[in-house]
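Q: What structure does this chain adopt?
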Amino acid sequence: MRSWLRDPDTRKWLVPGMGVKRWFLLLFLGMGSLGLGVSFLAREAYLSWTLPNEFYYLTLQFMPQTLRGGLFIAVALILVVVGVWKFNHALLSAVRGQVGQNGRRQESLVNLLYRQRIAGRGPQVVTIGGGTGMSVLLRGLKEHTENITAIVTVADDGGSSGRLRDDLGIIPPGDVRNCIAALADAEPLMTNLFQYRFPEGAGEGLEGHSFGNLFIVAMSEITGSMEQAIRETSRVLAVKGQILPSTLEDVRLKGVTKDGRTIRGESAITAAATDIREVSLEPQHPAAYPDAVNAIRNADFIIVGPGSLFTSVLPNLLVPDLRIAFQESRAMKAYVSNVATQHGETDHYSVQDHLQALEAHIGGAPFDFVLANDNLIDQLPPRWQSEPVRVDPAGASRAGARIVSADVVDVANRYRHDPRKLADTLLTLYDEQGEAAPRADEGIRLVAGS
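A:
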């Protein structure tokens, strides 16, 4: 019983604004009125008619009246609860489909109601980044709010996205595809199909391509533009929120290493696996996608990261109009530090080093807080060529924003964040923005501040 009460889905029934508690109360009032009416008729029947002896046992007259009344009430409550529960279960099964039958999943009734009543009224959240880190964040956020706008980089020039970009002259669809898959409310089979990558030997021209990339490109041919293709693809996969490119221009990423060498191309920077000092865009002043600028200006909460610092996060903020909108926005702003360093980009970086790199590239980073992971281990597997990102105690004075730590790592893969932990922590901090510091009992700890 205690574990049932601790279940998150059970507690959702008690959330204000769900719009169900009042109707349950009305149902029980109706059942109570029905019971009173039946009891009045039963009393009149006892007084007016001579009933068969069997009714003595059927109505439990051999028991004290108080015990008899309590027993009937308890049975009535059990029958009402089970009846309503099974009715909803049967109705929902017909609408959503059964688990294990034709690959469809059944979502609980409370989650459907919660999304309709509560998630749609959540804060306007804008995420800025790309790559796997963005996808992890979005998977967690979509459980809390549907008012999500993901702004993604279009500087990718490797793999399937790079080939489509070079062959067709379109913005690379890879990061857009990952975000669509993360925010999709479609059946798992459709989501898996969207992420499917054709293996070696699949045929000339198909090898290495992602089905989702080809789908988006085909949609752009049908609709006439990449932005419309993203909207229609999102509609087909029932995406919660929207995905927007930072720019529609053909931008390339240029990196300068710490020893002064210049590397052009996002994929070349990643493949070089060497220390990067700074990055920039070519051309340097691409026009921002207007809807992305408007989303930033209308946001309640802007989250930068997690993701590859130089190749996923910074390319978005190097678009001039996006950077200006971000700096001028009055929304609450957070930077999510990676939980592990990335070989060739952020080797030996602390949380403060990540923040300093952001500030150096965009002329200051007006974050309300920086979220760091505090569930650390001494070493990561050697093959990762990585180490946990730590808060540097000696570098507190270098922090341009307060640093808040919490357990946000995926313990099964310490190179990644845990979607649920990350989203829960970020939205807890957002809800507490008017307080001087987060509550310690939430597992959140203030580490350093400006």
